Amino acid sequence: MKNNKAPGFDLITKEILMQLPRKAIVFITTLFNGVLRTQHFPTMWKVSIISMIHKPGKPPEHATSYRPISLLPVLSKVFERILLNRLLPLLEVNEAIPKHQFGFRKHHSTIEQVHRVCDKIRHSLEAKEYCSAVFLDIQQAFDKVWHKGLLYKIKTLIPHTYYTLMNSYLTNRMFQVRESGDASEIYKISAGVPQGSVLGPILYTMYTADLPQTAQVMNATFADDTALLASSTDPQIASSILQDSLNKVGNWLQKWRIKASASKSTHITITLRKGNCPPVQLENNTLPQSDSVKYLGIHLDRRLTWKKHIKMKRDETNIRFRTMYWLLARNSKLSVDNKLLIYKMILKPVWTYGIQLWGSACSSNLTIIQRLQNGILRTLSNAPWFLTNSEIHEALDIKTVKEEIQQSSTNYNKRLDNHPNDLAAELIKITYNKRLKRHDIQTLQSRW
Predict the structure, then answer these.
(1) Backbone angles phi, psi at 283, to 5 degrees
(2) Furthest-apart CA pair in the chain: how many Å?
(3) Where is the Reverse transcriptase domain (predicted)?
(4) Which spans in 94-146 are helix H?
(5) DSSP 101
(6) Phi, psi of 208 (to 5 degrees)
């Protein structure tokens, strides 16, 4: 745990626990063993303190202008970590977590899930098919988990002793709002997994593990971000296949009291051909259609050219650069080494996110990012006009965009080779006859 974490209802911090003598550690061990033996979660550990964080630019008089942060007792988090280490092996043996769920799992990342989506799209483009894809927006996914439904599902997944403990863990939870020294009354929590807890993410994963799957539709989930993709040479058939899957998903959402926002969900047709797939519905609500969609922080366009994603990352990096211009300007008194540190820690991660995927874009699109980096490096180094961009990169020991792509793709391919999830490991092994003159992920390191 981090040292700067705020304490919970009991006011015990990590620093206090680290300074305890051996006798107190033995007492805490006895307490943890007692919780496991009696299968009763202490009531004091089930009280969360809600701290309100004001959103920048929002009117302070509106309740929606604040982001609630839940603070739980540190001892509760320590015990949950111990319990989680015991539950994970049981869930892996029972295959309780579906392979298409990449959220809150060790050795899984958003890049690999987006890669799965892109691989499905690439196959459709190569086969001259229409890829009809839906990206669902789940409303307050973690806060609206139905406790009785969750307990019903996990009863068959974990031993009875752990089930009884989880029943005690979820029931009779309470919260109190504190702001500027004032505190509200204590209220009961009747739904949702505990925010800020260690067990919350895995409980949500278990709750949504039985999301309906269809043979002809690819499911891609990362926590509550859900994508469904279906392909066919006929746009009518592609949407029909996707609609059948959405009907099953809609019934499942109603059964388990999960609400999806149709207005915030997106239906997109990805193809090189003209026309769009017919619209689809979720719970009798037509999903809005778009030519691009943002999934896990990466923008996917109709033809998978990465043009919109690259321009969005350029604009986002420019905004941050202008915000910090007083530090990175030519006349700034900050040393070049410190300026480079700011660039590497704050600016560069913005445009390098997902570079393993969008690095396959055409050279004209990659030049957009290279020009961006050239301008920033020239400014922060106060380089004279006669120095070339390559000389500046060499002097500052900064890789070019193409060199960054080569290194990132090489490391990414090595990670996929040893990936524990078959769905991710197969991405590097899939081969197919290429019709389009496009670069793929596997050959990025040898592209230049």
Answers:
(1) 55, 45
(2) 76
(3) 34-300
(4) 110-126
(5) B
(6) -105, 15
* Residue 384, helix vs strand vs coil: coil
| Residue 446, pLDDT score | 54
Round the average pLDDT of the chain to a whole number and report it: 91
Tokens at 373, concatenated: 């980096």
Please name the amino acid found at residue 174.
M
For 413-429, the DSSP string reads: HHHHHT-SSHHHHGGGT
Measure the CA–CA gap between 352 and 405, rounded to whole angstroms: 9
As beta bridge partners, residue 218 has 229
Residue 78 tokens read as 């320590």
Q: In 353-366, which positions are buried (b, 16+ CB within 10 angstroms) versus exposed (e)?
A: bbbbbbbbbeeebb
**What does the DSSP 8-state code read for residue 289?**
E
**Cα dihedral 155/158/164/168 (nearest 10):** -90
- Spell out the residues 6+ positions from residue 170 whose beta carbon is closer than 8 angstroms to its own: 147, 150, 151
- String of DSSP letters for 271-286: -SSSS-PPP-EETTEE
Q: How far apart are CA 47 and CA 175, in angstroms?
A: 5
- Summarize the chain as % helix, strand, coil (round to 5): 50, 15, 35
Q: Which pLDDT tens digit goes with each residue over 142-166?
A: 988 999 999 999 998 899 999 999 9
Calpha distance 229→288 (Å, rounded): 16
Q: What six digits make up the tokens of 440?
A: 């793929």
Contacts of 185 (CB under 8 A, 6+ apart): 176
Q: Where are the beta strands (DSSP E) in 202-272?
A: 218-222, 225-232, 260-270
CA gyration radius, the chain:
25
Please say if the pLDDT value at position 366 is more than 90.
Answer: yes
The beta-strand segments (E) located in 88-153 are: 130-138
Q: Which residues contact 402 (CB under 8 A, 6 or more apart)?
A: 366, 370, 447, 448
